[in-house]
TrEMBL record:
Xref: Gene3D superfamilies: 3.40.50.2300, 6.10.250.690, Winged helix-like DNA-binding domain superfamily/Winged helix DNA-binding domain
Stated name of the protein: DNA-binding response regulator
Keyword Transcription: yes
Chain positions found as 4-aspartylphosphate: 64
Source organism per UniProt: Labrys miyagiensis
Matching Pfam families: Response_reg (PF00072), Trans_reg_C (PF00486)
Keywords: DNA-binding, Phosphoprotein, Transcription, Transcription regulation, Two-component regulatory system
Domain Response regulatory: 15-128
Annotated GO MF terms: DNA binding
Record-annotated OmpR/PhoB-type domain positions: 141-241
Start-end of DNA-binding region: 141-241
Length: 246
């Protein structure tokens, strides 16, 4: 029987954890990831994933929704409470409702089966780039502040007015950073996708609204009546606080 578990590790290669119980799909993805310069470890359930994560570090997770035992949505929500590592959901359910559920549970992107392996590789590279696993060519050492909050673009940390670090997904952080770098300017969804480099990863436009809703939950005093990230009808979104660089 073919072993789909490991691809030989290389210290300079990004490490991908694939949680997929279909051995044919897992083998195809493992080979594709290896051909494009990634190291891959394949697991077939949430329990097996947990055992591997206790022993190894990874740069990104590809997570199938339909798994034996704990499903992918539940695993995604649990992972997001523990790590900011990028998560791509992989599923045969391609409807907008399922896609939005995955994003609301903390996934950074969502790929429906059947999929083009080259497209998936492009999405992986885009997420790794956005998550700063690759060294940026031009460092941005400034700390940005707004309404008592502090955002560190290099360390990719958000700190609330009480000095508490707030956990954010890659997409959430990138959106907030885009707003902080463009205060007082109405940004369309297309502009936000471009500013966060999400165009390479290819999430649907609706995902911008989902991620902004999650950002509001973390920074707005009253998320249902936002005052910092305002919706502009037929325009996009407006970040209202004054932003300073320190």
């Amino acid at each position: 029987m073919t072993d789909f578990t490991h691809v030989r590790a290389h210290p300079s290669r990004a490490r991908i954890l694939l949680v997929e119980d279909d051995r044919e799909i897992a083998g195809m993805l493992r080979d594709s990831l290896s051909e494009h310069g990634f190291d891959a470890v394949v697991t077939q359930s949430g329990l097996e994933m947990d055992r591997v994560l206790r022993k190894q570090d990874f740069d990104l997770v590809i997570l199938d929704v339909m798994l034996p035992g704990e499903n992918g949505f539940a695993i995604c929500r649990r992972l997001r409470l523990e790590t900011q590592m990028p998560i791509i959901m992989l599923t045969a359910m391609g409807g907008d409702t399922d896609r939005i559920i995955g994003l609301e549970f903390g996934a950074d992107d969502y790929v429906a089966k059947p999929f083009n392996s080259r497209e998936l590789i492009a999405r992986i590279r885009g997420l790794l780039r956005r998550a700063a696993y690759a060294t940026p060519s031009v460092p941005r050492p400034e700390i940005l502040t707004f309404a008592g909050w502090r955002i560190n673009p290099v360390a990719r940390q958000l700190t609330d007015p009480d000095g508490v670090h707030i956990s954010m997904t890659t997409a959430e952080f990138d959106l907030l950073l885009a707003f902080c770098e463009n205060p007082g300017r109405v940004l369309s969804r297309e502009q936000l996708l471009s500013l966060t480099h999400a165009g390479l990863a290819g999430p649907v436009e609706r995902s911008v609204d989902v991620h902004i809703s999650r950002v509001r939950q973390k920074i707005e005093p009253e998320p249902k009546e936002p005052v910092m990230i305002k919706t502009v009808r037929l325009g996009g979104y407006l970040f209202t606080p004054t932003v300073e660089r320190v």
